[in-house]
Amino acid sequence: MASSDPDSDDFADVPERAFGNIVPAEGEASVLQPGQRLARGVSRYLRSLGYVAVEEFVPDRGLRVDVMALGPKGELWVIECKSSRADYQSDAKWRGYLEWCDRYFWAVDMDFPTDLLPQDTGLILADAYDAEVIRMGPEQKLPAPRRKKLIHKFAMDAARRLQKLRDPRLGQDGRLLLPSGPEED
User: Fold this and answer.
1) Nearest to 122, CA basis, from 158, 89, 84, 76
2) What's the pLDDT score for residue 44?
């Protein structure tokens, strides 16, 4: 039964395992790739600030951000997770993400050479379990129409992902995927 509190999280008390074996449990961070571990720590930290996050979010065709966060006042942050110098140096698309957020951040671990990162972007130090903003990214407010479009897409993507976790046999067109078997007459 849904809570009458509009700020409640109806799934807050549901263990991650209830949705299947998709999200590794606390001791299983090693199953995730390095960037995924950073994204998980960042997402946990953002939740403590009142933000919600969607990982591997596609704001527009040809773009995929590591973490898109939606704040309590409708603010949108993009966080790119970099696990190594080579990972950072191979990222040629990051400037294209700036027009899709109010603030832009890099998330890196303690061993990352942070002097490589542009000073005019935000910096988050993270690990698989938590994170902390070291340098706040400068604010560049999105135009209202783009914000509306992104918040709608964020909500639709998050809802689809939750629905897929709850019912993995639901097809993309909304039809139920049935196991193939002998035809009935």
Assistant:
1) 76
2) 97
